[in-house]
Design a protein that fits this description.
- This protein is α/β, with parallel strands linked by helices.
- The protein has a domain at 62-167 and 252-296: 3-Layer(aba) Sandwich (Rossmann fold).
- The chain is built from 17 helices and 11 strands.
- The radius of gyration is 21 Å and the shape is globular.
């Protein structure tokens, strides 16, 4: 479709949603990219009053636990290490500053767009210990696995990964099984689903009676997912729908899945707001543990709770919205963030601050 067709389709979806909206429905967009797209396009402002959208734990930076933040901050201070990270992690606050502040103080910290870029540093600077900060879900984890396999093939001994990769379906299970969380339907992440396909989400409808729709990131695609969810919920017929078939195949990307299974095994992982979720992490298999930076540099992970006034954990569970946090927009802003939800380009607080979502909704008479 061209841009004009997109606009017509979008407005048709809005009208259709108004026709079928008969009772209050709470939907959660799991993915942080969806949160940003929803804010930028103003989708919340055109929804019927019966439809409420809340955000979920689909931002890898946001769900990184305080203990993990302090652990990789400690690693970055190690004079033996050159830490390579995605840009979103640079300003995440730890108990003693951020990676950006450490870099300003002289630590060798570099921003990269992929794990393969970190591998290139290791290849070109064999006298340095290059550590890639592996943060992300199933979307980015295959690239990390590929980098590790490439390091094996090339015999690179100066490359390792501080591994914080996590998997999404078990986080959704923990969310739906948790206390105080009431969700009628889920807008499921497009990028993750490209890798894992449809089947890993079946439990959402089968066990919890909640509908889910895999969606793309353009406004018409998101609206189509919302309409599908509202229709399924009103009909009392929970199911998992794929509204993004041009990118998401039922079986997913089997090559990427093979890479993940070869290099990683399920392990426990701590998620901000959700706690430790068994099996939701990706630990190195025995054959690749020499690339585990946590073991190579004996990284200590201590229990820590930072920023006690920050409500990021509750926001990631859809229990409150950013404006309900007492720090939002006053003590916590994108320029001076207190919690990671205000830092990341996929963070809910950053999206609400940037697009003034709550204020725009109130102006249009929605709660």
């Amino acid at each position: 479709m061209n841009r004009d067709d997109d606009k017509k389709y979008f407005h048709l979806m809005v009208e259709r949603l108004r026709e079928i909206s008969k009772r209050p429905i709470k939907l959660m967009e799991v993915c942080g990219t969806h949160t940003m797209a929803i804010g930028k396009s103003g989708i919340r402002t055109v929804l019927p009053v019966e439809i409420e959208l809340v955000s979920g734990p689909g931002c890898p930076v946001c769900v990184t636990a305080d203990s993990d933040i302090d652990a990789f901050m400690g690693l970055a201070r190690d004079h033996r290490v050159t830490l390579v990270t995605y840009g979103d992690m640079m300003r995440v606050p730890g108990s003693a500053g951020s990676l950006a502040e450490l870099k300003a103080e002289g630590a060798d910290i570099r921003v990269a767009y992929s794990s393969l870029e970190a591998l290139a540093f290791a290849r070109s600077e064999p006298h340095k210990e290059i550590v890639f900060l592996g943060v992300g879900f199933e979307t980015t984890a295959p690239a990390t696995a590929h980098a590790v396999k490439s390091a094996v093939a090339e015999g690179l001994q100066n490359f390792s990964v501080y591994n914080l990769h996590k998997t999404v379906p078990l986080a959704i299970r923990a969310l739906l099984a948790g206390d105080g969380v009431q969700i009628d339907g889920l807008i499921l992440p497009g990028h993750v689903s490209v890798i894992i396909g449809e089947a890993p989400y079946a439990f959402i409808a089968d066990e919890f009676g909640v509908s889910g729709a895999i969606a793309g990131f353009e406004p018409p695609e998101i609206m189509a997912a919302i309409v599908r969810l509202a229709g399924d919920i009103n009909a009392g017929a929970p199911r998992i729908s794929n509204i993004y078939p041009k990118a998401v195949k039922p079986e997913g990307n089997v090559v990427a899945q093979g890479l993940l299974d070869e290099v990683f095994a399920p392990g426990d992982a701590e998620w901000r707001g959700l706690g430790v979720i068994p099996g939701s992490g990706l630990d190195f298999r025995e054959a690749f543990t020499s690339f585990d930076a946590a073991k190579r540099f004996a990284v200590e992970r201590r229990e820590v709770r930072l920023h006690r006034g920050c409500s990021c954990g509750e926001i990631l569970k859809g229990m409150i919205k950013p404006s309900d946090c007492p720090l939002f927009g006053s003590l916590c802003t994108p320029e001076r963030p207190i919690g990671p939800c205000m830092v990341s380009s996929e963070g809910t607080c950053a999206a609400y601050f940037l697009y003034n979502d709550d204020a725009n909704i109130v102006e249009r008479g929605r709660p």
